[in-house]
């Protein structure tokens, strides 16, 4: 995979991971309630859930492209519409998207379970990955390139939440995120709309 293409993939994965939502609130809750270790465990287990969906999407998209190009086009347009809807929703969130996570008593096991289940119980991840990965998957793509896509999604997702957990142990990250959540929503909304347009045009 060319470096420029991988950087585009990494940027979109980072944007998805950093956008405020239930996953970020879950990591914040476990970090505030149990400290650094449960927060890190929650972030890592969430990344495995993301990797599972990315794996299904990459191999599934490859089969659809190869056998049903017309169906793949429909999936691509549907994914673009979903990305556009997410973008509009993020733009409309404004300050309402600010995070207010409360601490809760937790343990390593609870953090691992919640991290995985928040990812797996979110079917919107499949739609997000279909829309996202349709730009990067090709019929002749080898297993190595597919693995790079899956690992990129996992490492960026897990890396972001680990950074959040580590930063929260110094107690200044949450107020920073809360104060800037509306800007994160706006930037995310614009980028998602841009990606949707690019998918439709390209």
Share of helix, binned: over 70%
Q: Which regions are unreliable across 5 or more consecutive residues at pLDDT < 50?
A: none
Class by SSE composition: mainly alpha
- The helix tally amounts to 8
Task: Report mean pLDDT, rounded to a whole number.
Answer: 78
Helices and strands, in order, run as HHHHHHHH
**Secondary structure: number of strands:** 0
Span between termini: 18 Å
Q: Which range does the strand content fall in?
A: under 5%
The main β sheet shows up as:
none
Radius of gyration: 17 Å
Number of domains: 1
GO cellular component, one term: plasma membrane
Keywords: Cell membrane, Membrane, Signal, Transmembrane, Transmembrane helix
InterPro entries: LeuE-type
Subcellular location: Cell membrane
Task: Show the helix and strand layout.
Layout: H1 3-18, H2 22-34, H3 36-67, H4 69-93, H5 108-120, H6 124-133, H7 143-168, H8 173-201
Helix pairs in contact: 1-7, 2-3, 2-5, 2-7, 3-4, 3-5, 3-6, 3-7, 4-6, 4-8
Primary descriptors:
mainly alpha, 8 helices, membrane, transmembrane, signal, cell membrane, transmembrane helix
